[in-house]
Amino acid sequence: MMGWKLVTNKKSPLTYMTEIPSEFDSPTYRDVLSQFDAAAEWFCLDPNIRKRLRLPQRALCVTMPIRMDNGDVHVFQGFRGQHDTSLGPTKGGIRYHPDVNLGEVAALAMNMTWKCSLAGLPYGGAKGGIRCNPKNMSRRELQRLTRRYTAEIFPLIGPDHDIPAPDVGTDEHVMAWIMDTYSQQRGYAVPGVVTGKPICIGGSLGREEATGRGVVYVALEAMKHLGIKIDGTTAVVQGFGNVGSISARFLSEAGIKVIGVSDSTCGIYNSNGLNIPDVIAYKKAKHTLDGFPDGEIITNEELLELECTVVIPAALSGQIKEDNAHRLKCRMVVEGANNPTTKEGDGILKDRGIYVIPDILANSGGVIVSYFEWVQDLQKYFWKEKEINEKLHDIIITAFNRVLRFSLSENIDMRMASMAIAIRRLADAHLARGLYP
User: Fold this and answer.
1) Is this model's pTM higher than 0.90 or not?
2) Does 3.40.50.10860 match the CATH number of domain 58-190?
C-alpha cells in the first residue's frame, strides 16, 4: 500500500496530503521539495498546479539480468523518471552509481525541470540511473548493462519524448551505446535520442566542456556583481570529474588561483595554487588524485573548509549540510553539482551572508549545449565551436542577469529568485494548456 507523509503549509489554510509517496521519499527528494515549496509559497502558486508539480509525471523501475565476465548473472536495478512535459520533451542525465534510487532520480528530474525552464529551453526534466559501481566493471560489462537498460526504457525515450545525457559515472561511450541500441530497434540511425555523444555520430562541439564552462561564466559574472577582483582570488573545487576538472581549468585560465581540488579518494591542497593541467594529467594517468606530488593530501571535508573566495561543489548531492556549513570560509558558493547543498546547509550559508549561485542556474551549461546538440541532430546541420560557446555564454549570462535583477527587486536570495522564475514559466504553461481530460 502506498504510504503518504502529511505536509502542512503553515502560512496557508491548505493542507497537502498527497505530497511524498513513500517510494519517492529520500533526502534528495525532500531537499528539492523544500526549495519548491518555499518558492511556491512565496508567490502564492495555484494550489492545483502546486500539487501537480510536486510529483513526477512518470517513473519507471526496471531490472536487468547481465552476464558478467566471470560467467555469473547479476541482476541490476535501473530507473527513469520524467517530471513534467508541459514545455516539451523531457531531458536529463543517466547516472551509474551504487546509491542510485527512485527518490533521487525523481528529485533530480524535478530539478532538471526547473533548470530547463529557467534557461528558457523547450524541455521538461528527466533523470535516470542504474544502481551499480562502474569503477568495478569491465567495459564489456558496462556495454551489456547499458544496452539492456536502453531496451528496458525504450518505450519512454526518443528525440520527441525523452532525451538522455551523461551524468555521474557515464560518458560519451555510454551515450553511443544507447544511441546504437535505440537505432537498432528503429532500423535507422537516430542521433537525436541522446546528447553528449561522440562527435563522429552526431555529438556537438563544446558539449564535453559545457557544464564546467557555464559554471565559470556564472562565477565570473557573480564576482563582477559583488565587486570581487580576479587578482588574489582563490577557489576550491570539490569533485574532479568532468564538471570539476573543467571548472578548475577555466578558473585557472581566468587568473583565479585554484588552491584545492578533490575526487572520491582524497583532496589535494597547495596554498600557492595548483598547476591544474598537471593535476588533470595526473588524474587521467593514475585515475586518482592520491599521490599527486605538488599538493598536501587532505580529506573532502577539509577541502570544503579551506579559506578561499569561491567554493565549487561539483561532486554529489548533500555535501554542504548542517554539520559543516558553518565552517565554510568562502565568499561565494557556485553549485556545480546537482543539489549539493541541503536545506539546513543553505539556511546557514544564507544567515552567514555567503553568496550562493544555485545549481539550476550555475550548472545549466550542460543542458544548454545538449539542447544545441539536439537541434543540430534534428536539422542535420552542425555549428562551429566558437558559435556554440558564444550562444552558451549569451543564454546563461542572460539567465543570470534576469535572476539577479529579480533577486534585487524583490529582496530575495538567488535560489529563491531562480526557483520563482522557473516555476512561474511552468505555471503559465499549465494554465494555458488546461487539464486533460
Assistant:
1) yes
2) yes
